[in-house]
Amino acid sequence: MTHQADGVRKGKDGRPRSPWALNDPLLTVYYDTEWGMPIRDERGLFERLSLEVFQSGLSWLTILRKRPNFRTAFADFDPDCVARFKATDLDRLMADPGIIRHRAKITATINNAQATIRLRASGGLVDLIWSYQPSTTPYPHTMAEVPTCSVESAALAARLRQEGFRFVGPTTMFALMEAIGMVDTHLVGSYRRGSSGLWGTSSPYS
User: Fold this and answer.
1) N or C: which end of the chain has fewer CB within 10 A?
2) Per-residue pLDDT tens for 16-27?
3) Which residues pair with 17 in a beta bridge?
């Protein structure tokens, strides 16, 4: 892939976006309306964390297509409900073709709901995750320049593991940070660059 092809591309509406957002209409809608926007409520963060767990090793498009089924199967990602899931729920989920039937990821999600509840005694999941927001963000011009992890994502992953969370490696946590706007990896030139309101649209060094 050339650097030009790796940079922003215009969709049919003429708006420049990161190229992955044009691979499917569902990805375009997600990119335009959700990706990179701050999420600061516990249920919302638990859902994004859980979906990133299931995405590990798969495409995000696969997860988006199954997200309505995930929400139904996991009680709309209410941590209190998921934390109470029993062996019968595990059997139900393993038999559900509408989600990713991966036993370790399913049990990790139940475990992570329980860990989320425990965190409430010390500030909660929202405060913990957002405390790892970096002081700067990448300013990639091409997809080749987009990082896959960072010092902060590694530290967040280590802290979450310390708190009992599973399937929360540095790469998965960086993807979460991108998804919730903690870092802005919209390519420079994308019309969505800076949409989170947390970062500027272009590099201060350019």
Assistant:
1) C
2) 999 999 999 999
3) 9
